[in-house]
Amino acid sequence: MNPGDSMSALFALEPRDRTREIRDWEMPPRIPAPRHRHAAPCGPWPWMDLRSDFFQLAEPSQSHTVDSSWRGYPQNLFPNWTPDQARRGKITGQHGPPVTGTSSVYKCDVMPDGTFTAYEEYSVTDEDESFWKAMNGERPPMRVRTLFVDNMTHPVLQMLGTTFNVEPFFFTSSLNWIPSRYQEEVQPGKGDHITVTLTFIRTIQNPLTAPSTPRNSSETLGWRGKQPDPVILDNQVIDTQSPLSLSSTGNILLLDLLALHLVRTPESSTIISYHPESTWQTTSAKRLNSLVHGVSQSVYWQKIFEKSSDPTFVMLAILWYACYAWDEALEVLYGHINWMESRVISTNDMDLVRELHIIQAHLLHYASLLNDFQKSVTFVLETKNPAMDRKSYDPHAREVSRELMKTECNNLLSEIDRLERSRLMQSMRLKNVMDLAFATVNIEDSKDMRKLTEATVRDSAAMKQISYLTMIFLPASFAAGIFGMNVKEINPGTNGTMDHYVEASLVLTVLTVWIIVALQRSSPFHEPGQENNLWVRLCWPVLYLRRRWPVSRGHTVVNKNPA
Protein backbone atom coordinates (compact mmCIF):
# COMPACT_ATOMS: atom_id res chain seq x y z
CA MET A 1 0.00 0.00 0.00
CA ASN A 2 1.43 3.28 -1.06
CA PRO A 3 2.15 5.45 1.96
CA GLY A 4 0.98 8.43 -0.03
CA ASP A 5 -2.52 7.02 -0.61
CA SER A 6 -5.47 8.77 0.99
CA MET A 7 -5.79 7.67 4.58
CA SER A 8 -9.38 8.78 4.89
CA ALA A 9 -10.37 6.71 1.87
CA LEU A 10 -8.75 3.66 3.41
CA PHE A 11 -10.59 3.83 6.72
CA ALA A 12 -13.83 4.91 5.09
CA LEU A 13 -14.12 1.36 3.82
CA GLU A 14 -14.37 0.02 7.36
CA PRO A 15 -17.66 -1.93 7.42
CA ARG A 16 -20.09 -1.27 10.22
CA ASP A 17 -21.52 -4.09 12.23
CA ARG A 18 -25.29 -3.75 11.76
CA THR A 19 -26.13 -7.04 13.46
CA ARG A 20 -26.08 -5.44 16.87
CA GLU A 21 -28.74 -2.92 17.79
CA ILE A 22 -27.48 0.53 18.79
CA ARG A 23 -29.30 0.32 22.08
CA ASP A 24 -27.32 -2.84 22.93
CA TRP A 25 -23.98 -1.25 22.10
CA GLU A 26 -21.46 -1.23 24.92
CA MET A 27 -18.09 0.40 25.39
CA PRO A 28 -15.24 -2.04 24.59
CA PRO A 29 -13.77 -3.51 27.78
CA ARG A 30 -10.33 -2.58 29.09
CA ILE A 31 -7.51 -4.73 27.86
CA PRO A 32 -5.49 -6.70 30.41
CA ALA A 33 -2.29 -5.14 31.69
CA PRO A 34 0.56 -6.78 29.74
CA ARG A 35 2.87 -9.16 31.56
CA HIS A 36 6.06 -8.36 29.69
CA ARG A 37 8.09 -11.05 31.43
CA HIS A 38 6.10 -13.65 29.46
CA ALA A 39 6.47 -11.96 26.08
CA ALA A 40 9.24 -14.06 24.47
CA PRO A 41 10.73 -17.55 24.73
CA CYS A 42 14.05 -16.11 25.94
CA GLY A 43 12.53 -16.15 29.44
CA PRO A 44 13.43 -19.53 31.01
CA TRP A 45 10.23 -19.83 33.09
CA PRO A 46 7.21 -19.39 30.78
CA TRP A 47 4.06 -18.52 32.71
CA MET A 48 5.39 -19.86 35.99
CA ASP A 49 4.46 -18.59 39.43
CA LEU A 50 7.89 -18.24 41.02
CA ARG A 51 6.36 -17.84 44.49
CA SER A 52 4.56 -21.19 44.58
CA ASP A 53 5.79 -23.41 41.74
CA PHE A 54 8.63 -25.84 42.38
CA PHE A 55 10.84 -27.41 39.78
CA GLN A 56 11.83 -31.04 39.77
CA LEU A 57 14.58 -32.41 37.58
CA ALA A 58 12.96 -34.78 35.10
CA GLU A 59 14.58 -37.83 33.62
CA PRO A 60 15.74 -37.30 30.04
CA SER A 61 13.32 -38.77 27.55
CA GLN A 62 14.55 -41.84 25.70
CA SER A 63 12.09 -41.42 22.86
CA HIS A 64 12.83 -38.99 20.04
CA THR A 65 9.50 -39.43 18.29
CA VAL A 66 7.34 -36.36 17.83
CA ASP A 67 3.60 -36.53 18.22
CA SER A 68 2.26 -35.14 14.94
CA SER A 69 -1.33 -35.10 16.14
CA TRP A 70 -2.64 -31.56 16.53
CA ARG A 71 -4.68 -32.50 19.61
CA GLY A 72 -1.53 -32.74 21.70
CA TYR A 73 -0.38 -29.15 21.10
CA PRO A 74 1.54 -27.54 22.74
CA GLN A 75 2.95 -30.48 24.74
CA ASN A 76 3.53 -32.54 21.56
CA LEU A 77 6.09 -30.02 20.24
CA PHE A 78 7.05 -28.15 23.42
CA PRO A 79 7.20 -30.62 26.34
CA ASN A 80 8.23 -27.90 28.80
CA TRP A 81 4.76 -26.37 28.50
CA THR A 82 2.76 -28.11 31.21
CA PRO A 83 -1.06 -28.02 31.23
CA ASP A 84 -0.92 -25.55 34.12
CA GLN A 85 1.33 -23.19 32.15
CA ALA A 86 -0.95 -23.44 29.13
CA ARG A 87 -3.91 -22.56 31.34
CA ARG A 88 -2.13 -19.54 32.80
CA GLY A 89 -1.18 -18.36 29.32
CA LYS A 90 -4.88 -18.67 28.30
CA ILE A 91 -4.14 -21.31 25.66
CA THR A 92 -6.56 -23.55 27.54
CA GLY A 93 -9.08 -23.04 30.30
CA GLN A 94 -12.19 -20.93 30.68
CA HIS A 95 -10.33 -17.72 29.78
CA GLY A 96 -8.77 -19.25 26.66
CA PRO A 97 -10.21 -19.84 23.18
CA PRO A 98 -13.50 -21.77 23.19
CA VAL A 99 -13.29 -25.51 22.64
CA THR A 100 -16.35 -25.48 20.38
CA GLY A 101 -17.66 -22.95 17.92
CA THR A 102 -16.94 -21.63 14.46
CA SER A 103 -13.68 -19.93 13.56
CA SER A 104 -13.19 -17.97 10.32
CA VAL A 105 -9.84 -18.15 8.55
CA TYR A 106 -9.17 -15.89 5.55
CA LYS A 107 -6.44 -17.04 3.18
CA CYS A 108 -4.64 -14.89 0.63
CA ASP A 109 -1.64 -16.11 -1.40
CA VAL A 110 1.15 -14.04 -2.90
CA MET A 111 2.44 -15.72 -6.02
CA PRO A 112 6.11 -15.90 -7.11
CA ASP A 113 5.64 -12.95 -9.49
CA GLY A 114 4.30 -10.75 -6.68
CA THR A 115 0.62 -10.90 -7.65
CA PHE A 116 -2.13 -11.63 -5.12
CA THR A 117 -4.79 -14.28 -5.52
CA ALA A 118 -8.41 -13.84 -4.51
CA TYR A 119 -8.87 -14.58 -0.85
CA GLU A 120 -10.59 -17.72 0.33
CA GLU A 121 -12.52 -18.19 3.57
CA TYR A 122 -12.47 -21.28 5.77
CA SER A 123 -15.26 -21.78 8.30
CA VAL A 124 -13.87 -24.24 10.82
CA THR A 125 -16.51 -25.68 13.13
CA ASP A 126 -15.37 -27.52 16.24
CA GLU A 127 -12.79 -30.17 15.28
CA ASP A 128 -13.13 -29.91 11.51
CA GLU A 129 -10.48 -32.21 10.03
CA SER A 130 -10.88 -30.70 6.56
CA PHE A 131 -9.05 -27.56 7.67
CA TRP A 132 -6.25 -29.69 9.11
CA LYS A 133 -5.93 -31.51 5.79
CA ALA A 134 -5.99 -28.24 3.84
CA MET A 135 -3.18 -26.80 5.96
CA ASN A 136 -1.03 -29.91 5.51
CA GLY A 137 -1.80 -30.42 1.83
CA GLU A 138 0.72 -29.73 -0.91
CA ARG A 139 0.94 -26.07 -1.84
CA PRO A 140 1.24 -24.75 -5.35
CA PRO A 141 4.28 -22.56 -6.04
CA MET A 142 3.86 -19.33 -4.12
CA ARG A 143 5.90 -16.77 -2.22
CA VAL A 144 3.86 -16.41 0.94
CA ARG A 145 0.46 -17.43 2.28
CA THR A 146 -1.38 -15.17 4.74
CA LEU A 147 -3.89 -16.61 7.20
CA PHE A 148 -6.08 -14.15 9.11
CA VAL A 149 -7.94 -15.84 11.95
CA ASP A 150 -11.17 -14.54 13.47
CA ASN A 151 -12.81 -16.03 16.59
CA MET A 152 -9.99 -18.49 17.06
CA THR A 153 -11.13 -21.70 18.73
CA HIS A 154 -8.88 -24.05 20.64
CA PRO A 155 -8.84 -26.70 17.85
CA VAL A 156 -7.83 -24.09 15.25
CA LEU A 157 -5.07 -22.87 17.59
CA GLN A 158 -3.77 -26.42 17.93
CA MET A 159 -3.97 -27.09 14.19
CA LEU A 160 -2.03 -23.94 13.30
CA GLY A 161 0.50 -24.46 16.08
CA THR A 162 1.19 -28.05 15.06
CA THR A 163 1.22 -27.44 11.31
CA PHE A 164 3.68 -24.55 11.39
CA ASN A 165 5.54 -25.46 14.60
CA VAL A 166 4.48 -22.19 16.22
CA GLU A 167 6.08 -21.30 19.54
CA PRO A 168 3.27 -21.10 22.16
CA PHE A 169 4.54 -17.65 23.14
CA PHE A 170 2.93 -16.27 19.98
CA PHE A 171 -0.51 -17.38 21.13
CA THR A 172 0.00 -16.36 24.78
CA SER A 173 1.29 -12.90 23.88
CA SER A 174 -1.60 -12.44 21.44
CA LEU A 175 -4.30 -13.71 23.80
CA ASN A 176 -2.95 -11.57 26.66
CA TRP A 177 -2.21 -8.41 24.61
CA ILE A 178 1.52 -8.50 25.40
CA PRO A 179 3.77 -6.54 23.00
CA SER A 180 6.54 -8.85 21.83
CA ARG A 181 9.07 -9.34 19.05
CA TYR A 182 11.45 -12.26 18.79
CA GLN A 183 13.12 -14.64 16.36
CA GLU A 184 13.37 -18.40 16.85
CA GLU A 185 13.93 -21.62 14.92
CA VAL A 186 16.80 -19.97 13.04
CA GLN A 187 18.29 -22.29 10.39
CA PRO A 188 21.00 -20.65 8.27
CA GLY A 189 20.13 -20.92 4.61
CA LYS A 190 16.71 -22.46 5.37
CA GLY A 191 14.61 -19.95 7.29
CA ASP A 192 13.30 -18.94 10.70
CA HIS A 193 10.22 -17.83 12.64
CA ILE A 194 9.66 -14.19 13.66
CA THR A 195 6.83 -12.84 15.81
CA VAL A 196 5.65 -9.24 16.10
CA THR A 197 2.85 -8.40 18.51
CA LEU A 198 2.02 -4.77 19.19
CA THR A 199 -0.87 -2.64 20.40
CA PHE A 200 -1.83 0.58 18.69
CA ILE A 201 -4.57 3.21 18.81
CA ARG A 202 -7.53 3.23 16.45
CA THR A 203 -10.55 5.52 16.36
CA ILE A 204 -14.18 4.45 16.04
CA GLN A 205 -17.43 6.39 16.16
CA ASN A 206 -19.62 5.88 19.19
CA PRO A 207 -22.99 4.85 17.68
CA LEU A 208 -24.79 6.41 20.64
CA THR A 209 -23.46 9.86 19.69
CA ALA A 210 -22.88 9.37 15.95
CA PRO A 211 -24.21 12.20 13.74
CA SER A 212 -27.02 11.39 11.32
CA THR A 213 -24.79 12.38 8.39
CA PRO A 214 -21.22 11.15 8.85
CA ARG A 215 -18.42 13.58 8.11
CA ASN A 216 -14.93 12.74 7.10
CA SER A 217 -12.00 13.90 9.18
CA SER A 218 -11.22 16.99 7.10
CA GLU A 219 -14.82 18.22 7.31
CA THR A 220 -14.86 17.67 11.05
CA LEU A 221 -11.73 19.76 11.55
CA GLY A 222 -13.04 22.54 9.32
CA TRP A 223 -16.54 22.61 10.80
CA ARG A 224 -17.44 25.83 12.56
CA GLY A 225 -21.07 25.18 13.46
CA LYS A 226 -22.55 24.87 16.91
CA GLN A 227 -20.25 22.91 19.14
CA PRO A 228 -21.80 19.84 20.79
CA ASP A 229 -22.24 19.60 24.49
CA PRO A 230 -19.60 17.55 26.28
CA VAL A 231 -20.30 13.85 26.60
CA ILE A 232 -18.55 12.85 29.82
CA LEU A 233 -18.98 9.22 30.77
CA ASP A 234 -19.70 8.76 34.43
CA ASN A 235 -17.48 5.69 34.59
CA GLN A 236 -14.58 7.20 32.68
CA VAL A 237 -11.51 7.24 34.91
CA ILE A 238 -7.79 7.59 34.38
CA ASP A 239 -7.20 4.07 33.08
CA THR A 240 -4.88 3.91 30.09
CA GLN A 241 -5.90 0.31 29.35
CA SER A 242 -9.49 1.43 28.71
CA PRO A 243 -10.91 3.22 25.65
CA LEU A 244 -10.79 7.02 25.63
CA SER A 245 -14.06 8.77 24.84
CA LEU A 246 -13.75 12.19 23.18
CA SER A 247 -16.60 14.47 24.19
CA SER A 248 -16.46 16.83 21.20
CA THR A 249 -17.49 14.44 18.40
CA GLY A 250 -18.33 11.20 20.18
CA ASN A 251 -15.25 9.42 18.81
CA ILE A 252 -13.60 6.70 20.84
CA LEU A 253 -9.88 5.95 20.84
CA LEU A 254 -9.43 2.29 21.64
CA LEU A 255 -6.50 -0.10 21.75
CA ASP A 256 -6.16 -2.46 18.80
CA LEU A 257 -3.88 -5.44 18.28
CA LEU A 258 -1.53 -6.61 15.53
CA ALA A 259 -0.35 -10.15 16.22
CA LEU A 260 1.77 -11.55 13.36
CA HIS A 261 3.79 -14.75 13.15
CA LEU A 262 5.91 -15.20 10.01
CA VAL A 263 7.38 -18.55 9.06
CA ARG A 264 10.11 -17.82 6.49
CA THR A 265 11.22 -20.68 4.25
CA PRO A 266 12.89 -20.76 0.80
CA GLU A 267 9.90 -22.34 -0.95
CA SER A 268 6.72 -20.97 0.61
CA SER A 269 6.41 -18.79 3.70
CA THR A 270 3.38 -18.31 5.95
CA ILE A 271 1.99 -15.35 7.90
CA ILE A 272 -0.49 -16.05 10.70
CA SER A 273 -2.49 -13.06 11.97
CA TYR A 274 -4.50 -13.43 15.18
CA HIS A 275 -7.54 -11.21 15.79
CA PRO A 276 -9.35 -10.91 19.16
CA GLU A 277 -13.04 -11.67 19.44
CA SER A 278 -15.60 -9.06 18.46
CA THR A 279 -16.18 -7.97 22.08
CA TRP A 280 -12.99 -5.92 21.90
CA GLN A 281 -14.18 -4.23 18.65
CA THR A 282 -10.71 -4.50 17.14
CA THR A 283 -9.89 -4.82 13.45
CA SER A 284 -11.46 -8.00 12.10
CA ALA A 285 -9.57 -10.63 10.14
CA LYS A 286 -11.78 -10.03 7.12
CA ARG A 287 -11.04 -6.32 7.21
CA LEU A 288 -7.27 -6.69 7.48
CA ASN A 289 -7.29 -9.41 4.82
CA SER A 290 -9.06 -7.06 2.39
CA LEU A 291 -6.54 -4.30 3.13
CA VAL A 292 -3.60 -6.63 2.54
CA HIS A 293 -5.23 -7.81 -0.66
CA GLY A 294 -5.49 -4.13 -1.63
CA VAL A 295 -1.70 -3.83 -1.47
CA SER A 296 -1.60 -5.53 -4.86
CA GLN A 297 -3.35 -2.47 -6.32
CA SER A 298 -0.57 -0.14 -5.22
CA VAL A 299 1.89 0.48 -8.03
CA TYR A 300 4.55 1.45 -5.52
CA TRP A 301 4.35 -1.81 -3.57
CA GLN A 302 3.86 -3.93 -6.68
CA LYS A 303 7.26 -2.77 -7.87
CA ILE A 304 8.73 -3.80 -4.52
CA PHE A 305 7.25 -7.29 -4.81
CA GLU A 306 8.64 -7.56 -8.33
CA LYS A 307 12.16 -6.64 -7.17
CA SER A 308 12.27 -8.79 -4.05
CA SER A 309 10.93 -12.22 -3.13
CA ASP A 310 11.41 -11.64 0.60
CA PRO A 311 8.09 -12.46 2.35
CA THR A 312 8.99 -9.97 5.09
CA PHE A 313 7.72 -7.16 2.85
CA VAL A 314 4.18 -8.48 3.25
CA MET A 315 4.56 -8.23 7.02
CA LEU A 316 5.98 -4.73 6.63
CA ALA A 317 2.95 -3.73 4.55
CA ILE A 318 0.67 -4.97 7.34
CA LEU A 319 2.60 -2.86 9.86
CA TRP A 320 1.67 0.19 7.80
CA TYR A 321 -1.93 -0.36 8.91
CA ALA A 322 -0.96 0.51 12.49
CA CYS A 323 0.70 3.69 11.20
CA TYR A 324 -2.47 4.73 9.35
CA ALA A 325 -4.58 4.03 12.43
CA TRP A 326 -2.21 6.04 14.63
CA ASP A 327 -2.31 8.98 12.23
CA GLU A 328 -6.10 9.07 12.08
CA ALA A 329 -6.43 8.74 15.87
CA LEU A 330 -4.02 11.61 16.53
CA GLU A 331 -5.82 13.68 13.90
CA VAL A 332 -9.14 13.19 15.71
CA LEU A 333 -7.47 13.93 19.04
CA TYR A 334 -5.97 17.13 17.60
CA GLY A 335 -9.44 18.39 16.66
CA HIS A 336 -10.71 17.49 20.12
CA ILE A 337 -7.94 19.46 21.84
CA ASN A 338 -8.77 22.46 19.62
CA TRP A 339 -12.39 22.20 20.76
CA MET A 340 -11.34 21.97 24.40
CA GLU A 341 -9.18 25.10 24.06
CA SER A 342 -12.17 27.11 22.89
CA ARG A 343 -14.34 25.64 25.67
CA VAL A 344 -11.82 26.48 28.39
CA ILE A 345 -11.56 30.06 27.17
CA SER A 346 -15.33 30.58 27.00
CA THR A 347 -16.48 28.68 30.08
CA ASN A 348 -15.27 27.60 33.50
CA ASP A 349 -16.29 23.94 33.47
CA MET A 350 -14.60 21.63 35.99
CA ASP A 351 -15.67 18.56 33.98
CA LEU A 352 -13.37 19.78 31.22
CA VAL A 353 -10.47 20.01 33.67
CA ARG A 354 -11.10 16.39 34.67
CA GLU A 355 -11.16 15.31 31.03
CA LEU A 356 -7.91 17.20 30.41
CA HIS A 357 -6.16 15.05 33.02
CA ILE A 358 -7.61 11.86 31.52
CA ILE A 359 -6.39 12.72 28.01
CA GLN A 360 -2.96 13.72 29.32
CA ALA A 361 -2.58 10.33 31.02
CA HIS A 362 -3.49 8.56 27.77
CA LEU A 363 -1.03 10.67 25.79
CA LEU A 364 1.74 9.65 28.17
CA HIS A 365 0.74 6.00 27.65
CA TYR A 366 0.75 6.49 23.88
CA ALA A 367 4.43 7.38 24.08
CA SER A 368 5.26 3.84 25.24
CA LEU A 369 3.05 2.33 22.53
CA LEU A 370 4.78 4.33 19.81
CA ASN A 371 8.11 3.28 21.26
CA ASP A 372 7.04 -0.38 20.97
CA PHE A 373 5.97 0.30 17.39
CA GLN A 374 9.36 1.79 16.58
CA LYS A 375 11.16 -1.16 18.17
CA SER A 376 9.05 -3.62 16.17
CA VAL A 377 9.93 -2.00 12.86
CA THR A 378 13.60 -1.85 13.86
CA PHE A 379 13.40 -5.53 14.75
CA VAL A 380 12.02 -6.36 11.28
CA LEU A 381 14.81 -4.32 9.70
CA GLU A 382 17.63 -5.91 11.68
CA THR A 383 16.31 -9.50 11.55
CA LYS A 384 17.46 -10.60 8.11
CA ASN A 385 15.85 -13.54 6.36
CA PRO A 386 18.18 -16.60 6.70
CA ALA A 387 16.54 -18.21 3.67
CA MET A 388 18.09 -15.54 1.46
CA ASP A 389 21.59 -16.58 2.56
CA ARG A 390 21.46 -19.89 0.75
CA LYS A 391 24.04 -20.38 -2.00
CA SER A 392 21.46 -20.69 -4.78
CA TYR A 393 20.12 -17.20 -4.09
CA ASP A 394 21.37 -14.48 -6.46
CA PRO A 395 23.80 -12.22 -4.52
CA HIS A 396 22.71 -9.16 -6.49
CA ALA A 397 19.03 -9.86 -5.81
CA ARG A 398 19.87 -10.37 -2.13
CA GLU A 399 21.61 -7.00 -1.96
CA VAL A 400 18.77 -5.25 -3.78
CA SER A 401 16.22 -6.84 -1.47
CA ARG A 402 18.05 -5.80 1.68
CA GLU A 403 18.51 -2.26 0.44
CA LEU A 404 14.79 -2.13 -0.32
CA MET A 405 14.03 -3.45 3.16
CA LYS A 406 16.26 -0.80 4.71
CA THR A 407 14.61 1.95 2.66
CA GLU A 408 11.05 0.88 3.41
CA CYS A 409 11.70 0.32 7.11
CA ASN A 410 13.30 3.76 7.33
CA ASN A 411 10.24 5.22 5.61
CA LEU A 412 8.00 3.66 8.23
CA LEU A 413 10.35 4.67 11.05
CA SER A 414 10.24 8.23 9.73
CA GLU A 415 6.45 8.14 9.92
CA ILE A 416 6.58 6.79 13.46
CA ASP A 417 8.94 9.61 14.42
CA ARG A 418 6.46 12.09 12.95
CA LEU A 419 3.67 10.47 14.95
CA GLU A 420 5.73 10.76 18.14
CA ARG A 421 6.44 14.43 17.46
CA SER A 422 2.73 14.96 16.82
CA ARG A 423 1.90 13.21 20.09
CA LEU A 424 4.46 15.32 21.94
CA MET A 425 3.09 18.51 20.40
CA GLN A 426 -0.43 17.57 21.45
CA SER A 427 0.76 16.74 24.94
CA MET A 428 2.38 20.18 25.19
CA ARG A 429 -0.75 21.85 23.84
CA LEU A 430 -2.84 19.93 26.32
CA LYS A 431 -0.57 21.10 29.13
CA ASN A 432 -1.03 24.64 27.85
CA VAL A 433 -4.81 24.16 27.95
CA MET A 434 -4.54 22.82 31.50
CA ASP A 435 -2.48 25.85 32.53
CA LEU A 436 -5.08 28.07 30.89
CA ALA A 437 -7.87 26.31 32.77
CA PHE A 438 -6.10 26.70 36.12
CA ALA A 439 -5.23 30.32 35.31
CA THR A 440 -8.88 30.98 34.53
CA VAL A 441 -9.91 29.42 37.83
CA ASN A 442 -7.29 31.50 39.69
CA ILE A 443 -8.51 34.67 38.00
CA GLU A 444 -12.09 33.88 39.00
CA ASP A 445 -10.95 33.14 42.56
CA SER A 446 -9.02 36.42 42.63
CA LYS A 447 -12.13 38.30 41.54
CA ASP A 448 -14.18 36.59 44.26
CA MET A 449 -11.52 37.36 46.88
CA ARG A 450 -11.45 40.99 45.77
CA LYS A 451 -15.22 41.24 46.17
CA LEU A 452 -14.98 39.55 49.57
CA THR A 453 -12.24 41.96 50.66
CA GLU A 454 -14.28 44.96 49.55
CA ALA A 455 -17.27 43.66 51.51
CA THR A 456 -15.06 43.10 54.57
CA VAL A 457 -13.74 46.67 54.34
CA ARG A 458 -17.27 47.99 54.13
CA ASP A 459 -18.30 45.89 57.15
CA SER A 460 -15.29 47.03 59.15
CA ALA A 461 -16.12 50.67 58.42
CA ALA A 462 -19.66 50.10 59.66
CA MET A 463 -18.37 48.39 62.81
CA LYS A 464 -16.03 51.29 63.42
CA GLN A 465 -18.93 53.72 63.22
CA ILE A 466 -20.87 51.60 65.71
CA SER A 467 -17.84 51.62 68.03
CA TYR A 468 -17.61 55.40 67.82
CA LEU A 469 -21.30 55.71 68.69
CA THR A 470 -20.83 53.34 71.63
CA MET A 471 -17.87 55.39 72.92
CA ILE A 472 -19.91 58.60 72.65
CA PHE A 473 -22.75 57.22 74.75
CA LEU A 474 -20.49 55.31 77.20
CA PRO A 475 -20.08 58.17 79.77
CA ALA A 476 -23.79 58.80 79.75
CA SER A 477 -24.51 55.07 80.19
CA PHE A 478 -22.01 54.89 83.05
CA ALA A 479 -23.60 57.89 84.75
CA ALA A 480 -27.07 56.38 84.30
CA GLY A 481 -25.89 53.13 85.86
CA ILE A 482 -24.42 54.96 88.86
CA PHE A 483 -27.48 57.04 89.54
CA GLY A 484 -29.74 53.98 89.06
CA MET A 485 -28.11 52.05 91.95
CA ASN A 486 -30.38 51.12 94.84
CA VAL A 487 -28.08 52.29 97.65
CA LYS A 488 -29.14 54.63 100.43
CA GLU A 489 -26.36 57.09 99.59
CA ILE A 490 -28.13 57.79 96.26
CA ASN A 491 -31.70 56.61 96.87
CA PRO A 492 -32.62 57.25 100.54
CA GLY A 493 -34.94 54.66 102.01
CA THR A 494 -33.22 51.61 100.48
CA ASN A 495 -31.42 48.93 102.53
CA GLY A 496 -28.36 48.55 100.29
CA THR A 497 -25.18 50.49 100.89
CA MET A 498 -22.12 51.29 98.80
CA ASP A 499 -20.12 48.84 100.91
CA HIS A 500 -22.47 46.02 99.85
CA TYR A 501 -21.98 46.93 96.18
CA VAL A 502 -18.18 46.92 96.46
CA GLU A 503 -18.15 43.60 98.33
CA ALA A 504 -20.43 41.84 95.81
CA SER A 505 -18.46 43.20 92.83
CA LEU A 506 -15.11 42.05 94.25
CA VAL A 507 -16.40 38.55 95.08
CA LEU A 508 -17.98 38.03 91.65
CA THR A 509 -14.86 39.36 89.88
CA VAL A 510 -12.57 37.02 91.83
CA LEU A 511 -14.90 34.06 91.20
CA THR A 512 -15.03 34.83 87.46
CA VAL A 513 -11.23 35.07 87.16
CA TRP A 514 -10.84 31.82 89.11
CA ILE A 515 -13.22 29.89 86.85
CA ILE A 516 -11.77 31.34 83.60
CA VAL A 517 -8.17 30.45 84.55
CA ALA A 518 -9.23 26.97 85.72
CA LEU A 519 -10.93 26.22 82.40
CA GLN A 520 -7.85 27.24 80.38
CA ARG A 521 -5.49 24.33 79.67
CA SER A 522 -2.50 26.45 78.75
CA SER A 523 -1.92 29.27 81.21
CA PRO A 524 1.17 30.59 83.06
CA PHE A 525 -0.71 29.96 86.34
CA HIS A 526 -0.66 26.18 85.72
CA GLU A 527 2.38 24.02 86.38
CA PRO A 528 3.63 22.07 83.31
CA GLY A 529 2.21 18.53 83.23
CA GLN A 530 -0.97 19.37 85.08
CA GLU A 531 -2.96 20.85 82.21
CA ASN A 532 -5.16 17.77 81.68
CA ASN A 533 -6.37 17.44 85.30
CA LEU A 534 -9.41 19.67 85.89
CA TRP A 535 -9.37 19.23 89.68
CA VAL A 536 -5.75 20.32 89.85
CA ARG A 537 -6.54 23.32 87.67
CA LEU A 538 -9.38 24.32 90.02
CA CYS A 539 -6.78 24.62 92.81
CA TRP A 540 -4.60 26.91 90.77
CA PRO A 541 -4.63 29.89 93.21
CA VAL A 542 -3.24 27.76 96.03
CA LEU A 543 -0.71 25.98 93.83
CA TYR A 544 0.43 29.19 92.21
CA LEU A 545 0.97 30.96 95.52
CA ARG A 546 2.78 27.89 96.88
CA ARG A 547 5.17 27.97 93.92
CA ARG A 548 5.72 31.70 94.22
CA TRP A 549 6.10 31.86 98.05
CA PRO A 550 9.49 30.12 98.36
CA VAL A 551 10.87 32.39 95.65
CA SER A 552 9.66 35.50 97.43
CA ARG A 553 11.15 34.31 100.76
CA GLY A 554 14.41 33.51 99.03
CA HIS A 555 14.62 37.03 97.66
CA THR A 556 13.83 38.41 101.12
CA VAL A 557 16.58 36.38 102.78
CA VAL A 558 19.12 37.42 100.17
CA ASN A 559 18.23 41.06 100.60
CA LYS A 560 18.75 40.82 104.41
CA ASN A 561 22.26 39.43 104.14
CA PRO A 562 24.94 42.11 104.17
CA ALA A 563 26.96 42.60 101.01
UniProtKB/TrEMBL annotation:
Assigned keywords, A-Z: Membrane, Transmembrane, Transmembrane helix
UniProt xrefs under Gene3D superfamilies: Magnesium transport protein CorA, transmembrane region
Compartments reported by the entry: Cell membrane
Transmembrane segments: 466-485, 500-519
InterPro entries membership: CorA_TM1_TM2 (IPR045863), MgTranspt_CorA/ZnTranspt_ZntB (IPR002523)
Membrane topology note: Multi-pass membrane protein
Major localization class: membrane
GO CC, alphabetical: plasma membrane
Name of one Pfam family that matches: CorA
Any GO molecular function: cobalt ion binding
Protein name, UniProt field: Uncharacterized protein
Source species of the chain: Jaapia argillacea MUCL 33604
